[in-house]
Each structure stands twice: as structure tokens, then as C-alpha cells.
């Protein structure tokens, strides 16, 4: 499907969130997908994912979740980049992240008349979309190797996992069993909590490392990436029913 892309500013009170927007050229009403970055900003990989989703027939948008901390932040995957990205991650707050995701949803409603919404997030973004799954507008969530869900929440307070009962729609989580940042026990704990609260969910585990979906990282696993991408398409197709 032919798409068009642009940077837009999503308003959230006094904040303007720089966001990468990709959407089909053909007229029509499409579901909306919010793409949430890793700690590395809305970089080339996140923009590529946003475009891939748009080509499937969605309006996809990647808001800069570090807009408050570091406007325009975008780096690669060196150790120095990781250190810098983590520094900004540690300055975020759950309340602000939820506010920014909701503002992005409201923008898509206002600009394109969208009524069906999903999210996808990677790394820290995988944590953020687990949080955002508690928003009433979010019907489907794809959370890729979201670190810290079981142990912390951005800005402090009870771990994000304690909000599991608030999840409104469907959530599918993707983990690598060789991920040094997310012990398998934490993935098990997340699955148990989803089961306990009767959340519509699936948890997929791959023999892979952290960041297995990103073809620009050394930990990229083509087989795991391809299989999880197929599953993401299955999940997002629910927005059309």
C-alpha cells in the first residue's frame, strides 16, 4: 500500500510532541497504531517500523517520548548511546508518558476520525505500552521485551505490573529467553498476573536476546523477528472487526 510520511507536532497542553506519522495515501478510515520507541529515540528503525505498519493499512504514529527531556533525541546502538538513552529514560514519569500517549490518540481522533487504536512498543517502549494498555481507547497492545514491568514504574512507585488489572483490551507480550535485561522469571510473573486478572493475552517466548526484532542491532534474530511480525499482524487485524 502506498504511504505518505511526515513529522507532525502533537499538542499536549503546553508541550508539542514531535511525532513521525505514516499513513496510506488512499482515502479511507483506518485504525490507528501508536509506535513507542526504544531508549534510542524515534530513530531510523522506529521510523521504518512505523512505515511498515502504515503499508498494512493503518495510520501509524511514533511520538517522541523523550520530548520533555531531550527534544529531537535520536541515536544508534553504541554503549555510549545506550548510556545516554537510559539517562533520559530514568527522567520519565508514568503519568507524563500516559498523558503523551493519550494526547497522541486524541490527535488521531481529531485529525483523521480514527476510532480504533492499538499500540506497539519495544524495549522501554514495551514497558510504556504495557502502561498504556490501561487507557480505555487502547484495544490491542504488542509489548516487545519491555524491561522493568515487574520491578519498577517510570518516575517511581509500585511496579507497573501492579496495574495489570486495569488493562482494558488485548495484550500480547514478546520475550527472548536469552535476554539479560529481563529474567525469564519476570516474564513468567507477567504472564501469571495477566492470567490472574483474566486479561485477554498471549505471551510468546523466543530463543533470542534482547532487541531481537531490530535489524540494526547485533542481537537481531531474523526468525524470531519474522514470526513475531506475523503475530503482530494477527493482533492488529482485530481492529478491523
Question: What would you say this structure looks like, in words?
Answer:
Helix 5 (184-196) links the parallel strand 7 and strand 8. The protein has helices spanning 44-55, 79-89, 94-112, 124-132, 184-196, 222-237; strands at residues 3-12, 15-24, 32-36, 59-63, 117-122, 138-144, 170-176, 200-206. It starts with a strand and ends with a helix. Helices cover 33% and strands 24% of the residues. It has 241 residues and is of the alpha/beta class. The mean pLDDT is 97. The chain has one domain (3-240): Alpha/Beta hydrolase fold, catalytic domain (Rossmann fold, 3-Layer(aba) Sandwich). The protein has an 8-stranded mixed beta sheet with strand order 1-2-4-3-5-6-7-8, sandwiched between helices. The protein contains 6 helices and 8 strands; from the N terminus they run E-E-E-H-E-H-H-E-H-E-E-H-E-H.
